[in-house]
Q: What sequence folds into this?
């Protein structure tokens, strides 16, 4: 008789536990552990023995230098920005997860990609969420070529793989992983066990048949669906499509990539006729009005392999509360608290009675410490009501003793600013370029006090 094996898995981080507990001891989240049925023992055994047999015939031990170093073959998705995030294109036989909140534009991006790829190779688009008619109508509205793309509306993974065996696609889209199910597993589609097992099944299928599979994974705030985190370990690449619903810009970022670097950023704009690539993202995040106010600073971020100019705004205002507010949108809250402490101790500026708000314009998320100096200068600019020149960029990391530390890729950041018509810069002294720059006024600063004196 078959016995169900049970595991306990955190829906947030995907950690496994032998028994249920209230708090996940990996990520410290509460009430996220749920029961996972691992399919019946008998089916497990047969698949394991099959896997074992296949392994016997194929596996071979090699020394490292014998390994074939031919570059991984890749094919382009048709979007340079998408390719960049994937590390240079789609690798055949890889499993890619594209995550994002509902409405971010995942289906749109993949439909556009697949319609264009269909001209070059066999493709299969599996939709479990929308009807065939809805997909067709969207493709028509987006004026995409529809004569080649093969379409399937199905949610059973076994049926999908059987049909894929006949179609033999080179690339397949599963939209979305949360509606797919395996008959082995009793729990509902979207639950941790279904999502984990279907993703693992599809990943195996991708490897064995050399089909690139792109899975869509919704990220929901309340965690009602098992998120992309729980299956991140088994797939090759995980990319997130992000964007405010009130902004038309979407950013694509990889969080895991077995074939390239992570944290590459791709930028798209959602227009009336689908997603369009943004080739020069600095230009859009910088669309500043002619007459900018106090508290606004431009800095150069480093995103993967390229610089990105963004604007940071700060507002310092007399507080009505006994506990003044420190709000950071697009930047880290803790970092802001740290910077304000440094400003007090080493800049002599006490903001204890003031609310401090910091906002990164355009919905960009700043995770780099190179934004430190720009954030502080924006705060001081707002507090003292001194405008920072419009054609100035500022970057640099601020240390706890008030020193300004160098950041990586300093000269590329400066060049990007010059390319966009900036004329002045405040940078860490160690990031000063060697030669002179024509018509570009650049100040290297050692500590916070020097930077403040420049204002
Ligand atoms: P969709 O791809 O369905 O999102 P997801 O699959 O990630 O849930 O995108 C839907 C949103 O995109 C929807 O709110 C409308 C918007 N949209 C446009 O603005 N222009 C377009 O051409 C399309 C197709 C969608
Ligand atoms: Mg969708």
A:
């Amino acid at each position: 008789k078959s016995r169900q094996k049970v595991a306990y898995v955190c829906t947030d981080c995907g950690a496994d536990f032998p028994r249920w507990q209230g708090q996940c001891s990996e990520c410290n989240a509460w009430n996220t552990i749920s029961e996972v049925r691992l399919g019946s023992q008998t089916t497990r055994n047969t698949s394991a023995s099959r896997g074992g047999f296949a392994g016997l015939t194929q596996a071979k031990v090699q020394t490292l230098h014998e390994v074939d170093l031919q570059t991984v073959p890749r094919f382009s998705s048709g979007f340079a920005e998408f390719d960049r995030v994937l590390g240079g294109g789609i690798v055949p036989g890889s499993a890619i997860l594209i995550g994002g909140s509902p409405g971010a534009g995942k289906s749109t991006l993949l439909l556009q990609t697949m319609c264009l790829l269909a001209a070059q190779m066999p493709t299969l688009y599996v939709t479990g969420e929308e009807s065939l008619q809805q997909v067709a109508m969207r493709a028509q509205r987006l004026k995409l070529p529809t004569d080649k793309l093969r379409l399937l509306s199905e949610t059973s993974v076994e049926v999908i793989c059987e049909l894929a065996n006949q179609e033999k696609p080179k690339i397949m889209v599963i939209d979305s992983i949360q509606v797919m199910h395996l008959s082995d597993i009793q729990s509902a589609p979207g639950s941790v066990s279904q999502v984990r097992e279907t993703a693992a099944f599809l990943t195996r299928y991708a490897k064995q048949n050399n089909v690139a599979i792109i899975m869509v994974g919704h990220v929901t705030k309340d965690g009602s669906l098992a998120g992309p985190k729980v299956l991140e370990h088994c797939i090759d690449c995980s990319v997130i499509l992000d964007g405010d619903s009130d902004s038309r810009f979407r950013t694509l970022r990889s969080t895991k990539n077995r074939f390239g670097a992570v944290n590459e950023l791709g930028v798209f704009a959602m227009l009336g006729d689908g997603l369009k690539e943004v080739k020069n993202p600095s230009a859009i995040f910088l669309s500043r009005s002619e007459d900018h106010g106090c508290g606004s600073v431009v800095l150069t971020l480093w995103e993967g392999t390229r610089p990105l100019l963004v604007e940071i705004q700060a507002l310092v205002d007399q507080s009505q509360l006994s506990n003044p507010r420190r709000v950071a949108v697009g930047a880290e809250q803790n970092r802001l608290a740290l910077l304000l402490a440094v400003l007090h101790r080493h800049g002599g500026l006490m903001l204890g009675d003031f609310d401090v708000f910091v906002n990164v314009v355009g919905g960009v998320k700043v995770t780099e410490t190179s934004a430190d100096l720009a954030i502080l200068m924006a705060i001081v600019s707002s507090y003292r009501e001194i405008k920072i020149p419009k054609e100035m960029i500022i970057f640099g990391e601020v240390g706890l003793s008030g020193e300004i530390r160098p950041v990586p890729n300093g000269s590329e950041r400066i060049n990007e600013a010059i390319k966009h018509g900036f004329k002045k810069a405040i940078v860490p002294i160690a990031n000063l370029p060697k030669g002179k720059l024509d018509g570009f006024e650049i100040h290297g600063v050692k500590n916070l006090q020097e930077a403040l004196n420049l204002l």
